[in-house]
Amino acid sequence: MKDYKISGSIVVYNKPDDAYKTVESVLKNTDSNFSLYVIDNASPENINWMLKQHFDTNYIDLDENVGFGRGHNQVLDVIDSKYHFIINPDILVNENTINNLCDFMDAHPDVSIACPKVLHPDGTVQYIAKRRPSLMALVSRRIHLPFLKKIEDKYLAKEMDQDADFEVDFCTGCFTVIRTDVFKEIGGFDKDYFLYFEDADITMKAKQKGKAWYVPSADVIHFWHRETASSGSRFMTQLKSMFIYFKKWGFKLF
């Protein structure tokens, strides 16, 4: 690992088996210069209690579920790293993931936030380096009709070479690296979001301090569950977050 401090945070809620695999993966592929914080969002399974039996790392136990972004914000006052990694509890990293992203950030001081190539477990690409959200792009993600396919493909930047670096509008929240000083300066995630769009929002805030970039020399595996499609309450939360995002950054139809 690097000779400077690196940190990461994982917010856990339900799915203890996924959380175990993620923490194991991160700790296996980092060293003592990497400080990992696991924030338990008052999960019914008490996931941190389970993880503490297996892993010696930093744990924060919350009394209530404060949501994804506010969960990650719990580390703002305790980290003193150069780069901070925002990690979903359904991610597997490899031995080069952290180093390659740090190398990229070292070589590109004008970049404030970046995301890796994200793969499905079968090795196919998840298109996570997106353009700014628009209403029709989000409709196209939920309603699969032929005339909406071009809108969805544009939103997902599918015409871009997924094996080449390129600038993005939207770094996925499933795995992102941000300069710690930027993370602190912008106040972390916006507390108005409980779930969804907080990653699009923090990318916009980080882009006020530098560029956002997709870096395929680093990759992770993401066990994507797509719960929004099957949960009415999740979909309503997504709609609420969408309106918060549009109110803050401007409405975009296409």
Could you walk me through the main structural features you see in this protein, from its secondary elements to its overall organization?
The protein has one domain (6-131, 164-225): Spore Coat Polysaccharide Biosynthesis Protein SpsA, Chain A. The model has no long low-confidence stretch (mean pLDDT 94). The protein is of the alpha/beta class and 254 residues long. 33% of the residues lie in helices and 22% in strands. Strands 1, 2, 3, 4, 5, 6, 7, 8, 9 and 10 form a 10-stranded mixed beta sheet that branches. The radius of gyration is 17 Å and the shape is globular. Helix 5 (135-142) packs across helix 6 (149-155).
Q: How many β strands by DSSP?
A: 10
| Tally of separate helices | 9
The mean pLDDT is 94
CATH topology: Spore Coat Polysaccharide Biosynthesis Protein SpsA, Chain A
Number of domains: 1
Largest sheet: 10 strands, mixed
Class inferred from helices and paired strands: alpha/beta
Question: What global shape is seen?
Answer: globular
Query: Beta fraction of the residues?
Result: 15-25%
- Ends apart, CA distance between termini: 42 Å
> What is the ordering of alpha helices and beta strands?
EHEHEHEEHEEHHEEHHEH
CATH architecture: Alpha-Beta Complex
Low confidence ranges? none
What is the CATH C-level name? Alpha Beta
Radius of gyration: 17 Å
CATH superfamily: Spore Coat Polysaccharide Biosynthesis Protein SpsA, Chain A
Tell me the helix content: 25-40%
